[in-house]
Amino acid sequence: MVLEVLPVKRPSWTPLPQKGCINVSSKALLSLPHLNVALLRFDKEATIHEHAAKIDIDVICLGGSGFTSVGKEQSPIFEGERVRWPAGELHRLWTTDDEMLTLMVEHTASVQPEKLVWEDVDSSMISAFKYDPVKQELDVMFNRTGKYRYFDVPPDIVQELRDADSKGSFMRYAIIDEFDYEQLGR
Questions:
Q1: CATH (domain of 81)
Q2: Using one digit for the tens of pLDDT, what is the confidence trace for 167-186?
Q3: Boundaries of domain holding 174
């Protein structure tokens, strides 16, 4: 075996770009076909909005304290504690008077394989996109420049793209220059 030391995807703190996420920064540490790992840093009065995911997620509090919810249940979470967010359940994480550092582990292997299909959109910037939730790859067909693949795109970002009133604005704000990519052709 050859020792291989590799860089992480986003080694610096970057604000979470999702609408409804306030005062939360992340570092994407590891992205594998079955697992994603990231650090999340919450300032005081920070929140990740309530949403559901197609995957199971474990959140481990490494420092400070905050609150979490799953469904209609809420609980404080303290350093050294862990919570599991089951796939399909509404969940949320937030702070009030304290800061918090968490480790988020997304179990992407729990996503069932599905046929990947292009989703047509009404936009002056893009004509369609498709998403592979296991690989977390987003393919986008741009009207002028062709097809691109974005890597390590979380499922909630893709859902927000689906829900966005302006697909082009969302692409500029949350995807272009936020994720590594390659051009696939015209």
A1: 2.60.120.10
A2: 999 999 999 989 999 998 77
A3: 119-185
Q: Do 19 and 105 sit in the same domain of this protein? A: yes
For the beta carbon of residue 183, count every other beta carbon within 10 angstroms.
Answer: 11
pLDDT in tens, 38-59: 999 999 999 999 998 888 999 9
Residue 90, both tokens: 């509404």
User: What is the token pair recorded at 150?
Assistant: 């974005």
**186 burial via Cβ count (<10 Å: 0-12, 13-18, 19+):** exposed
- Output the pTM of the full model: 0.61
Residue ending a domain, choose from 86, 109, 132: 109
State whether 20 and 101 are in the same domain.
yes
In the chain, the number of structural domains is 2
Q: Rounded to whole angstroms, how far apart are CA atoms 24 and 21?
A: 6
Nearest Cα neighbor of 43 from 69, 19, 15 is 15
> How far is residue 44's CA from residue 20's CA, in Å, rounded to a whole number?
15
Q: What share of the chain is helix, strand, coil (3-state, %, to 5)?
A: 10, 50, 35
Amino acid at 136: Q
